[in-house]
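To whoever picks this up:

The nightly regression suite flagged ABC transporter as changed. Nothing in the input moved, so I suspect the structure step. Input below, exactly as stored in the fixture:
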Amino acid sequence: MASPLPPLRPSPSHQVRAAVLLRRPMLWLVPTVLAALVTLVLALLYMGGIINPNGQLHRLPIAVVNADAGATLPGGPQNLGDQVAQSVVAASPAGSVAWHRVDQAEAQDLLASGKVYGALVVPADFTARVAALTTTQATARPTITVLTNPGVGSLGSSLTAQLNQTAARQASLAIGKQLTTAPAAAATDSTTRLLLADPVTVVTQVGHPIGQHSGLGLSAFYYTLLLVLSGFIGGNLVHTSVDTALGYADSEFGPWHSRRPTVPIGRTQTLLLKMAITAGISLVTASLVMVACIAILGMDASHLPLLWLFSFCACLAVGLGVQAINAAFGSIGQLVSMFVFIALALPSSGATVPLEAVPGFYRFLGAFEPMRQLSAGVRAILYFDARADAGLARAWTMIAVGVVAALLFGFLMTRYYERKGLRRLVPQPAED
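Regenerated output under the current build:
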């Protein structure tokens, strides 16, 4: 019986030309379909969350403070602060805003913990100042104060300020209608009647200030993004470099190609090796993120030891998740992990556009997507004095859940493959 022919090694003179291969449909089909699907899904995900925040409002938390002591107006004693608070709540579309009617101290606590995006405050002398407008005792126009909370993000704070300013303006016009129709207004001049028609001054102030070097409340988001990218990129680099070092992937640097001898190692031990290296690298990447942002760029930050520990754990959780996904899905694992940690995580993070201002699908993702949990923890440390109820406690819990889930999923999948006898690659010697 004739021996099998050795594998063909085409000489350079017999190399296939690209023009010939371009006529093969299958070379076009797979990358075209994958690129089209990924592009379409990314476009729908990213733009779908920001197109219409005003139209998607769902229980946006805002505080209302009525400190008005009341006074006597034509017709008897009144408390216009109650009227303002009631009209503000009634004027918003059903389900769009979750109004918290609290006192001044409670409102300040809600702002300081990031639980509300802003507040509308009616002062103690509001009715008295309104009453004085119809007399010669007026010294200043009554005011309603709109408090912003830049620590929850510039867009969320701005959106809330606009809602509060509109509500305060509508309340002013309603009060003005009462004043101009009162008998006492008939004896006033045209200038006074114009003042009475819109009597309230709306003042906007920062309710819970943050540092000047905080990116208008966006530094927490970008810092979180750096942590996620560090864990994601670091995990994939470890995955590729370990496979190359163990002989399960080719090494190419420019025109140079090599293949190392294949090391006889199982899937589970390979995953354990990759996760251990990922943990070591996370110490470096988390530290460098802090050095770059705080020491070099001057980002405002406090609780530095806590911030470093949180940064390391965040990078580690993402990196372990990447390793688990790559171990389970193989060559498409990087695409899967990109969707888990980047594509689905960014629009559902709530760090740029509040989750209360995005479609319900993103609010659902925000319940478990990692960037939402991590950004809440970073925001609590940077802006809200590391308060547990500002999102830090939940962030720690979800980091722990993520680490456990990555370990369980990754090692269960590798053990399953090994029990099925599914080897990664037949051992090969090194090329000459």
